[in-house]
Amino acid sequence: MAIIPILGFLIVAHELGHFVVARLCGVVVEEFAIGFPPRLLSRVIGGVRYSLNSIPFGAYVRLLGEDDPAATGSFASKAKLPRALILAAGSGVNLLVAVLAFALAYGTGWPDNSNLSIRVAEVVAGSPGDLAGLRVGDIIRSVGDKVVRTPSDLRDSLEASPGQPVPVTIDREGTESTLKVVPRKEWPEGQGPVGIRLEVRALPTAHDPISSLGFGVKQALQIVGLTLMAPAMAIHGDLPLDAVRPIGLPGMSQLAAEATTAVVQSGWIFPVLMLTGVFSAGLAVANLLPLPALDGGRLFFILVEAIRGRRIAPEREGMIHAAGLMLLLSLMIAISFYDVLQPVPAIDWGLP
User: Fold this and answer.
1) Do residue 240 and residue 309 come from a single domain?
2) Residues 145 and 284 in one domain
3) Where in the sequence numbering do the catalytic residues fall?
4) Looking at the structure, do residues 125 and 195 belong to the same domain, yes or no?
5) pLDDT tens digits, 183-193
6) What is the residue-wise DSSP string for 296-307?
7) Is the Cβ–Cβ distance between 321 and 297 less than 8 Å?
8) Is residue 26 within 8 Å of 78, Cβ to Cβ?
9) Overall average pLDDT of the 196-202 stretch
10) Are residues 188 and 267 in the same domain?
11) CA distance 59 to 57
């Protein structure tokens, strides 16, 4: 399943953010683990146990005294700002990963409207295109001496020579050839001079590192903004409900499988990188929502502590987070069940 390495990487990156900032803030890190127990490999280095576990999905960081302010070097013993920074660090790293994923996708090849593929999508039986040998899937390269970059290039060249043989160079499965097409002076409505329908695709184009990084930042922020505004946009009718529905593991697995298939078939890697960026930015936002058991829920308790001037009892906060975790797990199961009943719409990656 393609989703396992993608989500696994994003969760490891998230936990690594907590780990690094906790160490910088002087919090004792007891364990940094990839996967979930039972353990396969484990070693203590610099007072931290690093573990590789047998269930290869996700990761976790165990900090000393998360609910015990009495323990020296514990998370709970730190002031509000260090605790808030540690909690926000996971989402911060996920946002950075989203930026880098989008930037790498743009740098290695992103669909660009300045680089189009003009492909034959339909040939009317008995039409000049059919008689000349044009077939569905042929890519139109040139007409005479003129390179075809847009559909209007093809149309103008054909309409300029009615009733005359026109050399049309095509690419059919990697092999170029030239056909003689005789455009009609008059034609049935909707068929055009040669009786073909075209499909236009923006071809992936590589970009320089500076513009790629700028694109990565812009794209990541757009995903964050869209995620936050999507519910309101759906209420106002600016977005269809299917576009804002939450998806669970089955839906994410479906999208990851489709993206991987597109990469294998096309040779371009941007579908997987784009999906990684979207998932990572979404994870960054979701974890900061003020819900119990999430980082955002813990940040909310720190905000309440700052307002009221004293901390909520750790045991009470722990009970709230435990109850919130059960509710979140129930919601995730319900969302996943809906994914099975109503699969998410497939993404058209725009690849020829």
Assistant:
1) yes
2) no
3) 15
4) yes
5) 888 888 878 88
6) HHHHHHHHHHHH
7) yes
8) yes
9) 87
10) no
11) 7
